[in-house]
Specification:
Strand 13 and strand 14 form a beta hairpin. The longest helix has 12 residues. The chain has a single domain, classed as Jelly Rolls. The chain is built from one helix and 25 strands. It binds fe (ii) ion. Fe (ii) ion binds next to strand 5 and strand 10. The site of fe (ii) ion has 6 residues, from strand 5 and strand 10. Its cofactor is Fe cation. This is Quercetin 2,3-dioxygenase. Keywords: Iron, Metal-binding. Belongs to the pirin family.
Length: 284
């Protein structure tokens, strides 16, 4: 019998403010919050108060990693120094490879109503940190949605979903870290068993309802909790009351990380270079 992935930790996020004063819940990578190689940060924004989001994220730089924004509800406008303009709408994803440098703004395209979604930061291997920047807007209509035999809806954003019955490639495939990013909607009493390669680091972020976790020390994780699982074994998730869960998995890079705000490199010298390049107008 194959073993199951164990629960290593269950932790809540922390309230934070970023950009020009956007209020959010930082789930990975804030003060006192661990990073989970290859993921550097996860923010959840979820509010129906425009004061929490209206200031947005005016122009700012990034270097050395990728940002993935998944909008559940609301509209955000992206503009960058390459001339890209994109409107991110409900259910859509923006996959931005900052690599050597990108300067962009992310501003809400609404003055009222709910704004709900996530931004995830995915590290790049050292050899790609100074590669060419790239940007993709993926509307909801281009992101595969499937229903498993047990009635679980899976939005396959990145990687490949495979439960032994259905296989579905996601909208995005990335080399090296091979990120798997699924939005799982479990109705009450359902279960789902996504297959993930041994060695992949796996996190579950429960953003609605609650989930019963695998393993001998079975326990439940409620909304707002990040669950880290061990890097090997099978995964069987059940939800008695129903849940919406972001499954985030990737192959660790095991490289040194030196971060200064929106720059994530492998050494202090490279961070100093990024700061000089930004100051001299040659970051991007
Ligand atoms: Fe940004």
């Amino acid at each position: 019998m194959t073993s199951q992935r164990r629960v290593i930790s269950i932790q809540p996020g922390q309230p934070a403010s970023d950009g020009a004063g956007v209020r959010l819940n930082r789930v990975i990578g804030g003060p006192g919050l661990e990073r989970f190689d290859p993921f550097l940060m996860l923010d959840e924004f979820s509010t129906d108060n425009p004061d929490d989001y209206i200031a947005g994220f005016p122009p700012h730089p990034h270097r050395g990693f990728e940002t993935i924004t998944y909008m559940i509800e609301g509209r955000m406008r992206h503009e960058d120094h390459l001339g890209n303009v994109g409107l991110l709408g409900s259910g859509g994803v923006q996959w931005m490879t900052a690599a050597r440098g990108i300067i962009h703004s992310e501003m809400p395209e609404q003055e009222s109503g709910a704004m709900r979604g996530f931004q995830l930061w995915l590290n790049l291997p050292a050899k790609d940190k100074l590669g060419e920047a790239g940007y993709r807007d993926i509307p909801a209509s281009e992101i595969p949605r499937i229903n498993t035999a047990s009635g679980v809806e899976v939005v396959v954003i990145a990687g490949e979903f495979d439960d032994g019955e259905i296989r579905q490639a996601g909208a995005v495939q990335r080399p090296h870290t091979q990120p798997q990013l699924f939005d799982l909607h479990l109705p009450a009493g359902s279960q789902v068993s996504p297959r993930l390669a041994d060695g992949q680091r796996v996190m579950l972020y429960v953003y609605e309802g609650s989930l019963e976790l695998p393993g001998a020390n079975a326990q439940a994780a409620g909304a707002g909790r990040l669950v880290r699982l061990s890097d090997e074994g099978e995964l069987h998730l059940t939800s008695a009351q129903g849940a919406r869960v972001l499954l985030i998995a990737g192959t660790p890079l095991n490289e040194p990380i030196v971060q200064y705000g929106p720059f994530v490199m492998n050494s202090r010298e490279e961070i100093e270079q990024a700061l000089r390049d930004f100051r001299d107008g040659v970051l991007a």
